[in-house]
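Input set for joint prediction.
Command: fold jointly, output tokens.
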Amino acid sequence: MEAWSSLLNGFAAALTPYNLLFALIGSIAGTLVGVLPGLGPTAAIAMLLPLASHLDPAPAIIMMAAIYYGAMYGGSTTSILVNIPGEASSVPTAMEGYQLNLQGRGGPALGISALASFAAGTMGVVGLTFFAPVLSRTALAFGPPEYFALTFLGLSLVVSLSGRDLGKGLLSALLGLLTAAIGLDPLTGVARLTFGSMELMAGIDFVPIIMGLFAISEILTNAEKETKCILEAKRIEWLPTWQDIKDTWAATTRSGVIGFLAGLIPGCSPAVTSFMVYDLEKRFSKHPERFGKGAMDAVAAVEGSNNATASGGFVPLFAFGIPSGPALAVLLGGFLMYGLQPGPRLMQEQPALLWTIIASMYIGNVMLLVLNLPLVGLWARMALIPFPILGPMIAVFTLIGAYSLRHSFFDLWISLIFGVVGYLMRKFDFPVAPMVLATVLAKLMETSFMQSLVLSKGSPLIFFTRPISIAFIVLTAVSVVSGTLLRRKARAQQVELEESDS
Amino acid sequence: MLKTKRSGNIASGIILAILGLVAAWASTSIDEGAGGHLHPRTFPMLIGLLLVVGGAALAVSGAVAKAAGEPIDWPDEKGWKLWLIALAGLVLFVGLSLPLGFLVCSFLFIAAFIRYFGRYSLPVALAWATGVTVFIYIVFIRLLDLTLPMGPLGFLA
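tokens >
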């Protein structure tokens, strides 16, 4: 009951025109940075910090929070329309959404993505409202062994992401791990595989890799084929149908719950959650054969989980002042700018401020849906632009995105190199997703493994003596075994189908 | 050469095995750091060796396969030419982005791509290139305050 009355007071404060205006500014800015590849919410919040310093704490933090969860709405747009996932968590959206776009269903995919983002994002805020005090302890239960076990579980998804050939999927994952191993050793700081190059000392960031593997290789493939228009379908749909919504609501709900829970874990890459819900939906789906060829439920699940994760991340931030990712770390900076230290004391001393921010998230999610749905038809029309005009635009925006991350020309070359690698992987039938997953997970996996060994004085038993860690290891085994069985079943069905055809 | 999936598997397997071998060899010269229970070379070495084994297995499986498999969807001669021109354009974009700046490079790349690949008239290509370049300037540089190399247009930053 206390939560209800506090929330109502929060709504009263958040609904003042002044606070509404800054929630709207944050939502628009968030959508914009989400749409533009490479520009994440972290950079956008950091850029707006000086502006925010002129405001009162409530509107400033409302605006910065709206940028953060607003960016999750915009993130799917370029993934679906032009195959540019701006971040690793959007990769599964690009894998399915872009295929839907080629089939003339880009509009419905964008619409479902906005609806799923709204529904799961709101579920996340409900979780934040009512379960934050209970669940906040989860954030503290995660030490290095738990992180290692979690990344291990994440890596096991390679089995189901490998497509037709598991061997090639594993090789693709190894290639990703090798790429991530370049640079400084995470624990000792010793240079590895850098061949004396200063640029390689900083490591290879996964964003230029993703940009290359997806966007640049797409441009090269279309250039060689003299593609006139990326749209293959004659019939184009602009908006989702009721059937689409009916088909995807269960996936959205599941992803909302999983995404929120994953958001509670500080430092857990949202990409892990994205790939996990993608894998889960493949198992739950009535049409798993559509995965890889354009599955609407996958788009809903991945985009829903991204938004729920964003909401879940506020739990450890508000409860303990622990930011679960770089964007929330900058937001924490916003709090500190006003002399506010998020944590148990802030919850007692400034409850009105926190509840105003939480209430503004409900409003912000509605604003984002209202902002994004009418834009769906407009964005989807981008697919009608002839490729010779769209292609160079994709290239230029991709390269600006790759550069803007670290202001590094080296990253531009990395994008081009991985563009060619991605092109060859397509030709030689190597799945790209395992490589992306491995690249994203590698650093956290290795660091948490090394730290665990330091904690246990070198004994690997530490992974089997902590309940959460054991649970993840068991889940990994289940995931690998069931994934292998599913692959066998799918292959047997295919053979049966081929025999009946002949 | 490399016309079928089978020959593709042999070639890609060999390439990956060589890459793994290079990584494993390079790992041997990694210094020992302080504070860790595992030598910093452990992971790169392990990954390198696994790539050698995996790559070799793929190459061998390709070599012993009876069926040649489906043909690889390589482009024809004209397709290769277009592929190379697109790649050369991208390489020039990246190579010239420091001296000329992103705005000039974007303008030139977009105009040239539209003109060559789309066979549009020069005014159409220039109009699109101008529109996109102005959009980049307004959104990325003015609105989002992004620091991009500007080359001779530095006064616009």
